[in-house]
Amino acid sequence: MADTDIFRDLPAIPERRVAVRPTTAGLAAVRRHDPWLFDGSIASASPDDLPAGAVAVVFDDRRRVAGVGLWDPASPIRVRMLHAGGSCDVGAELWRQRLAEALARRSSLVDTPDTDAWRWVHGENDGLPALIIDRYADTVVVKLYSAAWLAHLPSVIDAIMDVAPFAVRRVVVRAARTVADAARAAGVADGSTVVGTAPDAPVRFVERGLQLRADVVRGHKTGHFLDQRDNRALVRSMASGRRVLDVFSATGGFALAAAAGGAESVTMVDVSRPALDTARANIAANSDLVDVAACDVNDVCGDAIEVLDRFAAEGRTWDLVIVDPPSFAPNAASRARALHAYRRLAAAGLRVTESGGTMVQASCSARVDVDELADCVQRAARHTNRRVREQRRTAHPIDHPIGFDRGAYLKALYVSVAAAGTKN
Q1: Between 3.40.50.720, 2.60.40.420, 3.30.1320.10, 3.30.750.80, what CATH number should domain 91-200 receive?
Q2: Nearest CA among 243, 294, 300, 249 for reference residue 266
Q3: Relative to the CA of 222, which of 33, 86, 131, 417 has its CA 20 to 30 Å away?
Q4: Would you tell me how many other CB atoms lie within 10 Å of the CB of residue 93?
Q5: What pLDDT does 184 receive?
Q6: What percent of the chain is modeled with pLDDT above 70?
């Protein structure tokens, strides 16, 4: 169970509840099971001075309970909805139920013997908005995207320990930037270990038989990009005998997959030297595999666009190019800038893709859909005098389900590339 001494400074769950009367549009959103009730969609709330984590009961215009959620007064998303269509009890039993349901959705992955890292709870899409739970072998990482979860953290941890179908050695809590100050004040700083002993090294786990390590305490997100597992498997299946360029390589998931798939060489590009060092360690950890040992591995530390432009100027090309950048559109106002960035990146990637080769362009920006990403690639092709043909589109893996209209974010395009005027 959780270390109760660590939780001594956590806020208490308020006994009082917030009665919320939404606007007509807000009520419609609740009724269609939207997990977010924004401040602008609330006509009144009483009392409105309760702290984050208070239970919010949403009433319709006939004073019937329309739904229940968690109150978050410091966020534009004022209520994180947990249930719609009536009332429900909020607490450990609800968490256990949602955790068990999430496991059932992932049963085919949970029971895979050669993979022991997956997303257990995908926030809103699994009925627990602003809460992420990832498994890395015997380590569970809980990431909070709302201060509303701080008061409920002990019961969430207890539910994890009760429901987990594997032995849990430790639980680490991560806090998003918007929650970090509140978490620190509550004695649970980002990266705190609340069950078991804090890791003194990156946590080891297995993905489709490959050995990997994740820095669950300081690493980006929860330590690894679990959502790209299926795309890494596709790259592995395409890599035999090819020269592969992995741009935004992070901890080397794509690079390792390519090496394991028989790539002749792999070149990694990332702005972070520690990330590249981790990537090299991940590849070295699999050197017992013949294909990995035979692969020529290189890395370049620097800005992706600058490095790609330099490669193009030098006339360097690769048979398989993976471009997997971070999100460029954190909000609606950044969409235009994001689309420009994707076009620029696609153009840079196309310039270094060998004629007859393949480029993989990925995006994790929820506000940019797959058709817009495809348009960016087509525009980049015209700009660079290349001809591209879509081979496939991919989206979310099974452990990152889509449970509401805005729940989708991940997409990737696989395109064959040739010089304009040639067939591909």
Answers
A1: 3.30.750.80
A2: 243
A3: 33
A4: 12
A5: 95
A6: 97
- What the block records as the tokens of 193 is 């270990």
| CATH superfamily, with its number, for domain 8-84 | PUA domain (2.30.130.10)
In this structure, what are the phi and psi dihedrals at residue 46, rounded to the nearest 5 degrees? -145, 130
Closest by alpha carbon to 366, among 401, 330, 323, 325? Answer: 330
Is 346:361 a contact under the CB 8 Å cutoff?
A: yes
- Give 271-282 pLDDT, tens digit per residue: 999 999 999 999
Global pTM reads: 0.94
**DSSP H or E segment with residue 218:** none
394-407 average pLDDT score:
94
Structure tokens at 136: 């890395």
Closest CA to 207 of 235, 239, 242, 243: 235
Sequence-separated (6 or more) residues with CB below 8 Å from residue 213: 201, 202, 203, 204, 205, 251, 278, 281, 282, 285
Q: Can you spell out the DSSP letters for 338-389?
A: HHHHHHHHHHHHHHTEEEEEEEEEEE--TTS-HHHHHHHHHHHHHHTTEEEE
